[in-house]
Design goal:
The structure holds two protein chains of two kinds.
Chain A: H1 2-12, H2 15-47, H3 61-88, H4 91-123, H5 131-150, H6 156-169, H7 172-182, H8 202-241
Chain B: H1 3-32
Classes of the chains: A mainly alpha, B mainly alpha.
Chain lengths: ~240, ~35
């Protein structure tokens, strides 16, 4: 069963096909990134109503929440590609994980910085060692660990070894997601990604969704650009070795 | 500091990191294709 799956995957994820996809998607994803981030920021900063409890400060949500969602999403994506790489031994999966990981790490940094800035006026402190914040910091360390191990290597064996960090570290993702429910934390529980109706009014929700689209399109744009350069660098390294 | 300072701080830091990542990625791609 696995051998036929591998044959299909190898056909679909040929380097040439992946490069072609990246080239096609780049202008579209780039355009969506620019328009969404501009519209979402303007809407969130100027037109969304102030929160009845937090006042104006809640507007930090429009950068903090999408960055946090995609930091987790990209991690899952990279861990998923690594798992596919382990199963199929197709190197492009490891390269894809390597291409998207720096973007996820950047989003994690954004999430931690903006969260800290939001925490000072609302909680009275920049940082607290509670479950959500600590598990998010662990996510950053996992990204850094993976990036360090996979730095400047295109070798399938080395990349697959580095990917073990990603796959084992995925256990941290549900901990981050449900940390606010499992433990008493300063961080508020989920308002949107929960098994009930969103606890957020549509006038505040739309700019958040547009910003989330913008962050996702940003990840796709620069992840694809990164993947393109990794494929080219790997080719150059092979040419030099021959 | 009032709310405005915190909001601009958060947006400023976010877009600074996004632009920095975009420039680094773009330059890396340009160098690799030469």
């Amino acid at each position: 069963m696995f051998s036929s799956l591998n044959t299909h995957l190898a056909k679909i994820f040929k380097t040439r096909n992946v490069l072609g996809f990246c080239k096609k998607i780049l202008p579209l994803a780039g355009g969506i990134t620019f328009i969404s981030l501009l519209t979402g920021s303007m809407w969130g900063l100027l037109y969304a109503p102030a929160d009845y409890q937090q006042g104006e400060i809640f507007r930090i949500m429009y950068v903090h929440v999408p960055a946090s969602w995609w930091a987790l999403g990209i991690y899952l994506l990279a861990a998923g590609f690594s798992t596919l790489g382990f199963i199929s031994r197709i190197p492009i999966f490891f390269l894809t994980a390597k291409a998207f990981a720096p973007i996820g790490a950047g989003f994690t940094v954004i999430s931690l910085i903006t969260g800290s800035i939001w925490g000072k006026p609302t909680w009275g402190t920049w940082w607290v060692w509670d479950a959500r914040l600590t598990s998010m910091l662990i996510l950053l360390f996992l990204y850094i660990g993976y990036l360090n191990l996979s730095y400047r290597t295109y070798n399938e064996r080395a990349l697959s070894t580095a990917s073990i960090v990603l796959v084992i570290g995925s256990i941290n993702i549900p901990i981050i997601k449900w940390s606010v429910d499992w433990w008493y934390t300063l961080h508020q529980p989920a308002s949107l990604m929960r098994f009930a109706r969103p606890a957020i009014h549509s006038s505040m929700l739309w700019p958040l969704l547009i910003m989330a689209l913008g962050f996702g399109a940003y990840a796709l744009t620069f992840g694809c650009l990164n993947l393109k350069s990794l494929i080219q660098e790997r080719q150059q390294q092979r040419d030099n070795a021959e | 500091m009032n709310a405005c300072h915190y909001i601009w701080g958060a947006y400023g830091a976010t877009f600074l990191i996004l632009v920095a990542m975009a420039i680094v990625t773009y330059r890396k791609c340009r160098n690799s294709s030469q």
